[in-house]
Specification:
Length: 579
Amino acid sequence: MQTQQTQTLQKKAQKAQALLRVRDLTKSFNGLRAVDGISFDLHRGEVLSIIGPNGSGKSTTINLLSGFLEPDSGLIDIDDTAIAGRSAAEVAERGLARTFQNGRVFGSLTVRENIALGYHKKLGATRPLSALQNMPVLRWLSLLGETGAALFGGPAVKREEKDVAQRIEREVDYYRERLGSREDDATYTLSYANRRRTEIARAHISEPEILLLDEPTAGMNQSETAEVIQQLLYLKEQGHTILLVEHKMDLVAAVSDTVIAMDGGRIIASGDPDAVRTDPVVVEAYLGKRVGSDADVARVKGEGKLASQTNVLTQQNALDDAATSISSERPALLTMQDVNVYYGQVHALEDVSLTVPEGAIVSLLGGNASGKSTTMKTLLGLNKVTSGALLYGGEDITHLSSRDRVQRGIAAVPEARRIFPQMSVYENLLTGAYTRDTRTSAGRAAVAADVQAMYERFPRLAERRTQLAGTMSGGEQQMLAFARALMSHPRLICMDEPTMGLSPRLVEDVLAQIVALRDELGVSVLMVEQQAELALSVADYGYVLQSGRIRLAGTGRSLLNDPRVQEAYLGGASGAAAV
């Protein structure tokens, strides 16, 4: 009883002290109000989640809070210090550390080096003149001070280096099974999930006042999501203040004290997680007015269970070799024949054979580090084939460059979209036509006609044609990535995680667009997707990869109904409660 009373008093004390205050915050892009007068508090020791469909204003809000955007009006205070309009570096100095929706690590640096960068702002002896870094005339002195400390060191610098090394080990210990043996590996060699873990560790190492996590489990499967939930619960127990943006309601419900739902740049609901996620207005915002099945609504409300995800990886690794090829009446557009790929001494792809027929959607399934992205990169010419062959339209393209493959009609919608953030929507579309001949007026007119066709297919892009692509929502960026790929007139589009980080309503739109590419334009699609049930629901054919080898193959329907696939990738009969 006494413990319960103590916890109640602690909660009241936390509620009495607002660490982050936001008042009447607004931001517009070319007249479009992305954030429309929102206000909220984040209290010390609290976990607050912001949810909402794509385009609701979540990303703009956290970019305003972290200094990546300047608000048009409104107040942002951290511990009673005004930070609205300050740079990202200054906000970080005030105690806010963040991760990013699409994951941002320095690929050529090791895991240890990436994590160490998160503590740079708190270094003292190694940055002896850091106070001058924001002074226009004297900022070069701070660089000179760091150079001197690096070259000549001293006892204080060595003590600080030892302290940082211990902090890095602590962060790696949180993910010992995942990162323990990879500390000295370049992060570009890691799976997507391990890059996300590295990014979280980099944000946490500085013990920030506020830890801002932007969709930390995007692109992770059920077991990996469950692992992150346990880590967040541990951080919560330690008293960390966390601002979380997420689409997965099971995660939100498990870790949040308070939830804010946004739509159209405004807050449409706030309060207790259970009350917000079951609010009819919130459910409609996620699913639209034509609400689907009870199962769809249950996904938004987070009524599925996190249970039994501990055995998912075991189940995925226990698939017996079965049918590993497909039979189609359609002619083959792309064929991989016994392809082997190595990363150094690591055998990344082992005798992989697959076929993408003309005008078909083919889904490539598998857990993280199974070889899905490696297969995609190999098809696009980014990986060197050690042995085997790639045939496209009957032509051997094994040793062709990526540019030549694009010119022959292979396009890509990469993982995390990879649009050019500092370029407008229109400029991004033009990059998709870079291989086309625009030296003549007829060529330029053809490209202009295709841009207009993309605006008609994706009306939201027409509305935002002059907007910087980096300021758009994740769903809008995904539309742009689709349109950019279509600008090259492809026969085959390779899509890597096209629904990652999207709300259910937008996931449905993206899947409809993929089907339309096949049915209306006759484009073949090879799709890598973590959400196996979604991928197989629209796929004509599918392959299951495990440890660089094809383990299963068949029609989308047969794999969807295969008990082994259901257990390993769909969480049994119910799947994950993710939105």
